[in-house]
Structures are given as C-alpha cells and as structure tokens.
Amino acid sequence: MVDASLSRPPVRRAPVETAARVRLRRTLELTGRVLSDPTTVIGLVIIILMLAMALLAPVITTPNVPDPYQMPRDWGAVRMPPLTEGHLLGTTNNGGDVLYGVIWGARTSLYLSLLVVSITVVVGTIIGSIAGFLGGRFDNVLMRIVDVFLSIPELIFALAIAAVLGPSFANIVLALAVTFWVKYARIMRAQIIRVKQNDYVDAARVIGDSKLRIYFKDILPNSITPVMVQATMDMGHVVLVGATLAFIGLSEAGIAEWGVLVSEGQAGISSGRWWASTFPGLMVFLWALAFNLVGDGLRDALDPRTEGR
Amino acid sequence: MLTNLEEHDAIVRAPDVIASVRDLKIHFRGKRGMVHAVDGISFDIRDGETLGLVGETGCGKSVTARAFLRLVQTPPGVYAGGSITFRPRRVCDDCSGVGCRECDGTGRVAAHCPACGGKGCRTCGGTGEETVDLLSIPDAQMRALRGNRIAMIFQDPGKALNPGLTVRDQISEVFLQHRTAEILAAAGVSPNDVLLRRQASQKSRAFEKMLLAVPPLRSGRNRVDAALDTMVADALAQTQIPNPRKVMDRYPHELSGGMRQRVMIAQALACNPDLLIADEPTTALDVTVQARILELIRELQQRHKTAVLYISHDLSLVRRVCDRVMVMYAGRVAETATSQQLFRRPTHPYTRGLLGALPGRGAHRGRLAAIDGTVPELVDPPAACRFVGRCPDEVAACSRTDPPMVEIEPEHAAACFVHAPPGKAAATRPVRTP
Questions:
Q1: Contact across the interface for B162 and A19, Cβ inside 8 Å
Q2: Is some CB atom of chain B closer than 8 A to the CB atom of A225?
Q3: CB neighbours (10 Å) of residue B330?
Q4: CATH H-level superfamily of A44-63+80-306
Q5: Is B201 a residue whose pLDDT tops 80?
C-alpha cells in the first residue's frame, strides 16, 4: 500500500489572469509610473484645478448676459484694487472684473487648446501617415509642403494668417490650427518610417494581413506615443501663442480671454495698477507650465529609453 | 549544361516537389548600378523535406527565402526574372486538418487545379493539382497563401512580435485571417451569421463591435472568442509551452527569447502550412535554447510533414537538421547535395573552404583556417565564376565563363570546372575531410 504522505501533493495552480485583468494591471502600473514623479503630480494638480475652474465657471460666477464670454462691465467700479467688495481681484480700466476674466478665460483657453490640438493631431497624423507609410512620391510632395510651413516662424505665420482673416477668436483658432499641424506630420512620418522597418511588420505581412490592417494593428499603436506627448505639451503652447495673438489685438476686444485681459491692464502697470495684467498673465504661465510638466512626465513614463533614470 | 533542367523544370512531372525555383534573379538598384543579389538560381523543395540554405552574409539566401512570400521591397529590389512555382495544398476534408489515413497524417491534401477541376489540363501540366507562380499571382491570392500555405519564422523573435499586442492577439490574427469557417464551426455558429462571420474574419467595423457588445448578441461573440482562445491555446501547446492559457495574456517583452521563438513557431505553424521558411531561427538565442528550438522545429516538421526551407550560416547546425543542403555564394548556387554527401564529399572549392574553416575536435591548436580574400562586389558582375580570386584551384576558364551546375553523383551537383571538368562526370581529386 502506498503511503499517502509519499504521494505527490496536489498541484496548486496559479489562478489564470484574464485579459481584462492584465490590461487593468498594466494601466495601473503605467499610472503609477507617471505619478511617481513629483513634478508631474504638480502639473497634474494644476491642470485639474484649471479644468475644474473652466468647467464650473457658470457655477462660481454669475454668467454675463447675453454672452458669458464677454467681460461684464461695472462702470461704477473702475480701476479698483484687489480685495475690493464684489471684485476679489480688482477691476480693469473699463470696470471689467479680473476674477471673472480669469475664470472664464480658463474656459476660453480650454476651448482654444482642445480645438486646435484635436484638429492638428488628426490632420498631422493623417498626413504624416500617408507620407511615411506610402513613401515615395507622396512622401516627397507632402514633406516639401511641411518644409515650407516650417520655414516660417510659428508665431509670425499665425500672426499673418490671423491678421489677414481679421480680428476674431475663431480666426485665432484657425490660424493656430494651420500652423501647428506640421509638427505632428513630421513626428508621425519619422515614427512610421522607424516602426515600418520592424520585423513584426514583415511578420504581419507573412501571415497575410492587409496593408490597412497592418497600419492600424502594428504601425499606428507603436508610433503614436510621441504624438501624444507632443499633443500634451501643445495644450499649453497653444494657449501661450493664442494669448500672444489676443494680446496684440487679434481677437475681439472685451472678450474674457487671458491675453486680452493682459492687454487691457498693461496701460495701468506704470501707474501702479498691477493686478489687471498680473493675474491673467500668471494663469497663462501656470497653464503652459502644467501641461509641459505633464508632457515631460508622460514622455519619461512612456519612452523605454528614458526608463530607469 | 544545367542538370536535366527540362526534366526538373516541370514541377508537375515531379509529384513530390512542392516548390520549384527556376532561374530566379533578384536585383537591387544601388547608387553604382544594379546589385545582383540573387543571380539566376534554380532549386526544388520536395514535400516534407528540410532544405538547408547555407552561405555567408550577403550571399542572397535571405533574399531568396523572402522572395517566396514576395517580401522583397520593390523598389529598391527588382524581380529581374525567373519563377517560383508552388503547389499549395488544402486542408483535408476527412479529418479537417488533424491528420488521418486519407491524407497520410499530414492534414493536407492536394488542391484541385481551378482551371480544370482536377481533370488535368495545360495550366497544371495534366496532374490536376493547383500550381501557382508566386511571383506573378495577384496580391489578394498571395495574401491568402501567406501564413496559410507558406509561413515564415524570423531570426529575432524579439523584433518579430508586435510589442503592443498580447500573444493571444498575435496568434489569433492568423486564424482570423485564414480560418474563419473553422472558428465559426468550433463556436457552433451558423456560417450564415453575417455579423459573427465578419467578427471572425476581422472585418467588423466599430459600430458592429458595439452591436456585438449588446447582451443578446454578446453570447455569440463570446462563443467565437472562446473558440478562438481554444485554437490559440492548442497552437501554443503544440510548441510545448507550459500553461498556454496563461502565456496567451502575456506581452512579448514578458517572455524569454526561447518562449518568444516558440510563440513565433506556433504562429507560423498555426495553419499547418505546406512550406515553412525558417530564416536563421536560432541565431538570436543562446546555445541551450537553440538546441531545444531546433528539436521542436524538427519534431513538428516530422509530425506534419511540412517542407522547411532552413536558412543558416551555421554548417554544423545544418548537418543536424537538414536533409539536403544548398550552398550559396554571391547570389549563385555553388553546390547542392544531401547533407551526408556534402559533408562526406564537398566538391566546390568554396564548400570545402567553409568546411575546412570549421574547427573540429581533431583540429590542432593555432590559427583557424579561413578563405582568403573577400566576397566580390555584386554590382553588374562579369560572366565568370564568382569565386575567382579566392579559389585555390582556379583554372583559366574560370574567369571567362560561368561554370554550370554539373552533377557529380545522384542528388549532388556543383558549379565548378575544376572538380568536374566538362566531359568528366565524377570529381577527380581526393576530398579533404573537414
């Protein structure tokens, strides 16, 4: 008779992880890696506060009628310093409430950056993909066009377009969209040419995949990361350039936009009325800084080459 | 004076030949002219055999292999001439690919010629079996063959797997591409279910996927997914991966090199191909793993009786693995023979140089033997033997004419004047043992 203790103990199998679990675990890992960098966390916190401010604008302030994006004018309280009753951050020369401008300016900036970045990412990715994936003549023609765009300084180009189209906020969006897509096209093309040479693209052809499927399955997911990082950084950059254009006067006057507000307050700086320019200026700075920090953090977390530093 | 070209040429008259390369020329447009990377080579691959393709870097062996799947990039590559005839099989009806007496355990049977339906006609040379020229068929037909009838294992499994997809996704890809009907059958779904059929052949659009996530339709999709999972797990289990269900959810970077290569092999053999192209499948692995992977390929090859085109520059490895060997030099075939013949009696001076350079057990210490000189430039080469200048046994004729393939003994041919001068069939010199 066989002694029971000598027989093999029952094999204990490790529970099989489901695909969904694996995906969740990996997402958490990536999130953890992003959050391990304190500067990224600072950036994220600023972004979240900004977003909250933008989204809750109609709740924390009384929207101006009829157009909430227009600064309310309190002609009875012009040039009031901060901490005045009813005007926490003071008022401008024309009686505009600085706090209202700061809060609704966040909303305008969010519109501006989301619109411009989504348009440019889509356009840039498509054009860069065509150039990189098809190559040859397409590549040559498209990249020469990109070269033309890149040869003109970004700000001056946007300024020229906005100036030709006339002063309006919509034209600023258009001008920025026209100037910003080239970067994405460049990045995307370079990525695709790099990824295309990988053996797994050949391996996909070997198992009989169609070109389109190879593009969506093997090439696009493996080349999109730098575009995402650039897009995050551009969320800040777009607002910076947009505010610059608005400051010069290429948007409608009196709109609740940080650049417009800075421009409205700049005349008073020499006479000691610092607040009308400082607060919106600070907002632009914080916005651009926050997205840059997060973009940097994303790059470090996503790029295997910078891992372990 | 090619050996019985006419006789060999017709793949149709040699029923055991599944692929036949004739006078294949692949050139690359370079800055200084046409590089003749593959310059008129001819050979056959027989059903179920392992043919070794040996040569040094740049001799055209990888390009030849890639031409089978039309993977050579054009441009800069140019298919300058010749043909690759291939006889694709189909899945055996009696056993649906498992292997039965009807199909001799291979799970594959000859496909009928589409032109005559198996009666025998001019296109198929009277055999009634489908034959295609891989270099001239339309892209859609080529894609249907890739991964299905002809598969390939790459050199570096670390680079040949998409880093962003799980093992499951990469292997199911093959089934979704080529085995839609089987997936549906295994899932117990009617082949007329358009939505699920599209799902099982990867044609679903985004809105269809959303539709399939809705509860009444979801059960069907789950069944398809489960069937697919079983097929993937079976394919992985074939390559002796422990716990395939667990490995399926791993990403390539979480696996060791040997495991990755097993995944590659599972993917390549998933559809039970007629021809497997193995492009130095063990070069990127360390020696112990190498041996296991080799055994695995050998075992699977013998079980399925798949023909293998094995590319390598490691002669000792080829000796172990291959039935027949073809030695290439500078875009030409230098010598073909069975493994035994080649090692017993290497005839072409290049082959002998290669074998002489192998450090054997009995070799005395000191400098290793080497072939003097370097590989010639292949830009617009003259009509002469490619080995001129490095050959120890050169004669005057070598730099004037191309030596043709001459049969030395049955199954053994070499492209050399010296050891088989025209008129004399047998080699004339004693052969050094390696």
A1: no
A2: no
A3: 23
A4: MetI-like (1.10.3720.10)
A5: no
Residue B143, token pair as written in the block: 């894609």
- Residue B379 has φ and ψ, to the nearest 5°, of -80, 115
> Residue type for B106, please?
T
- Rounded to a whole number, what is the largest CA-CA distance in chain A? 105
Cβ-contact A294, A40 below 8 angstroms = yes
Which candidate, A255, A249, A281, A268, places its Cα nearest to that of A73?
A255
* Of the candidates A175, A189, A56, the residue with the CA atom closest to the CA atom of residue A129: A189
CB contact under 8 A, A19 and B164: no
Instruction: Indicate whether B4 pLDDT > 60.
Output: no
Strand partners for B51? B309, B324
Are the C-beta atoms of residues B305 and B13 closer than 8 Å to each other? no
Contact of A19 with B168, CB cutoff 8 Å = yes
Strand partners, A11: none
From the list B247, B249, B223, B304, the residue with the least C-alpha distance to B271 is: B304
Tokens representing residue A77 in the block: 């309280």
Read off the tokens for A22. Answer: 């694996």
* Residues in chain A closer than 8 A to B267 (CB atoms): 203, 207
Average pLDDT, chain B: 78
- pLDDT score, position A172: 92
- Chain A contact for B74 (CB, 8 A cutoff): no
**pLDDT for res A252:** 84
Q: Which residue has the higher pLDDT, B425 or A108?
A: A108
Residue A73, SS3 per DSSP: strand
Q: Domain segments of chain A: what residues?
A: 44-63+80-306
Compute the distance between CA of residue B311 and CA of residue B280 in angstroms, rounded to an integer: 5
Tell me the pTM: 0.76
Both structure tokens of A178: 């026209």
Q: Nearest to residue B384, comparing CAs of B371, B370, B392, B394?
A: B394
Q: Using 50, 70 and 90 to split pLDDT, how confident is the model at B429? A: very low
Q: CA separation (Å) from B341 to B184, B326, B354, B412, B424?
A: 49, 11, 15, 7, 19
DSSP structural state of residue A87: B
Phi first, then psi, for residue A87 (nearest 5°) are: -135, 85
The answer to whether the beta carbons of residues B411 and B338 sit under 8 Å apart is yes
pLDDT at A6: 52
Q: How far is B143 from chain A (nearest CA, A)?
A: 4
CB-based contact (8 Å) between A202 and chain B? yes
**Residue A204 sits at the chain B interface (C-beta within 8 Å):** yes
Strand locations in B251-386, DSSP E?
A: 275-279, 307-312, 324-329, 332-338
CB B227 within 8 A of CB B168: no
Of B71, B159, B248, the CB nearest to A205: B71
Half-sphere exposure of A291 (CA within 13 A, CB side): 25
Adjacent-strand bridge partners of B276: B151, B308
**Quick check: B224 and B183 in contact, CB under 8 A?**
yes
